[in-house]
Amino acid sequence: MSIGDAMGGREKAKSHIRNLVRIAGADGVIDDAERKLLLRIARRYELSEEDVDDIIVNIDKMHFTPPATKQERYTQLYNLGRMVMADGVQNEAEVTKISAFAVGLGFPTALVPKLVEEVIALVVEKLYEDDAVERIDAFMKANS
């Protein structure tokens, strides 16, 4: 089973890529490092470069499809953090967007600033996705 199937199909995968595109473009431009990360993540969900380009062009026509499981939520949040740091710069617009997405993913609003800080720290640590998801889970358990 592919990651795209595990996420619940193409629409959920496209929704996730849409959110990543919004983070990547928060500073007004999608640079090479951000595009490479977008394409790498898209391939994991069996989406092509053409799919990504279509998402970029039609971003305002796409709707958010929430993840179905806690694991998917944590994975998406970690990927959003990876996108924030893809160009090596964490700017205010990106942090604002990832915070809004965290709320949209169902994380408690009061916890979001600390959670986003934790996710960015995990990205800087360059953890593997599975390890990061475990750490996010531990963070949530410790702070709930």
How far apart the termini lie comes to 32 Å
pLDDT < 50 runs, ≥5 residues: 1-7
Element order: H for helix, E for strand: HHHHHHHH
Range of strand content: under 5%
Structural commentary:
The protein has 144 residues and is an all-alpha fold. It has one domain (3-142): Orthogonal Bundle (TerB-like), CATH 1.10.3680. The protein is built from 8 helices and no strands. Helix 7 runs antiparallel to helix 8. The chain is globular and about 40 Å long. The chain starts with a helix and ends with a helix.
Summarize the SSE layout with pairings:
Blueprint: H1 3-6, H2 10-24, H3 32-44, H4 49-57, H5 70-84, H6 92-104, H7 112-124, H8 129-142
Task: Kindly list the characteristics that best describe this protein.
single chain, 144 residues, 8 helices, TerB-like, mainly alpha
Summarize the model shown.
The chain is mainly alpha-helical. The chain is built from 8 helices and no strands.
